[in-house]
Amino acid sequence: MKFAALFLGLSVALACAQNITVQVGGRPVGSANTLNFESGTGIIQSCHPDGGQRITCTPSYDSAVVTPRDAIHGTENVCTSATHSTSYACRISRGTLLGYSPGMTIVLVVDVPCPNQCSLNVDALGPVSLKRSDGVTDPLGTLIPGEPQWVFYDGQIFRLLGGGGGPRATGQDRDRDALARRFIASMETMAYARTVSLETTAGDVHKTTTSNAIGNATINAVTAGLPGQHMWVIIVNDQISGKTVSFGNNFKSAGPLMGSPGKSATLQFISDGTAWYEVARTGNL
Fold first, then answer.
1. Which of these, 201, 100, 98, lies nearest to 157 by C-alpha position?
2. What DSSP designation does 175 have?
3. Do 159 and 77 share a structural domain?
4. d(CA 136, CA 157)
5. Cα distance between residue 274 and residue 224, in whole Å
6. Helical H runs in 34-118?
7. Residue ranges making up the domain that contains 256
8. What is the reported pLDDT for 164?
9. 203 in the same domain as 129
10. Which of 32, 133, 187, 225 is the Cys-Cys partner for 229 at CB 3.0 to 4.6 Å?
């Protein structure tokens, strides 16, 4: 009788010892003697016995739901040709391109000019004709060795976006200019704080409104910008009192901006690639 009771107690203890406590993010979600892996959207679970006492589970992704990085192409799109000919060939900066797709853009750097016809072969996918932005005209000298140019695949050919360097026979190259009825710059609205980070890649216009609870502030540019890049900063002063806004990292300014209650100011900067130089400012708007 004592042996039977001992055996029963041992069985219960073993059964309890097999329970598994599961946590997610450090918080318990339950305890049981069976752990079930269930596939989610885009995630596939695969498990198999691995020896006598272990089961190994490996998660993977469903490529029909989650697109691989190389298929997306992302921003890893710098292509440098070193063929010493107008049959340009190159590989993207990382990974391998799976195929040409309409809308794909590439930053192309060539080693020889293209006086007439030329082609581009990316990741050995095959040569494709390279034309000006109209899709018909040959580059005719607009590709300059060492100068990066954006090219766009329209489903059949690569087109230059904005042309490139080198004059035409007429002495003019309008492909260097942007012709449009209007141009609307992107604007970043910056949260006001004692230290404000201005993200120079978020747009060409940056706006912030002062807060009396915070007081004076300093604006730092995250990067020094690209040579020739312009940007505008709009500072709106609150109604309570004038705030002093200084310009810190990556700025060459004419000094702090002294605000007036309820008034706004605009400042224009241009970059030489090493810093943002103040061009003009207008206050009391």
1. 100
2. G
3. yes
4. 10
5. 5
6. 69-72
7. 187-282
8. 44
9. no
10. 225
Give the tokens for residue 67: 């697109």
Q: Is 174 helix (H, G, I), strand (E, B) or coil?
A: helix
- Number of residues that this document lists for the chain: 285
Query: In 3-state terms, what secondary structure has residue 71?
Result: helix
Reported pTM: 0.43
Residue 40 per-residue DSSP state: B
Six token digits for residue 70? 């190389």
Q: How far apart are alpha carbons 271 and 285 in whole angstroms?
A: 25
CA distance 71 to 92: 12
Contact 117, 138 (CB under 8 A): yes
- How many of the other CB atoms lie within 10 Å of CB of 115? 13
User: What is the overall mean pLDDT for the chain?
Assistant: 80
CB atoms inside a 10 Å sphere around CB 136 = 9
Q: Are residues 103 and 138 in the same domain?
A: yes
Rounded to whole angstroms, the Cα distance separating 279 from 281 reads 7
Mean pLDDT of 60-73: 64
Q: What is the CATH number of the domain that holds 196?
A: 2.60.120
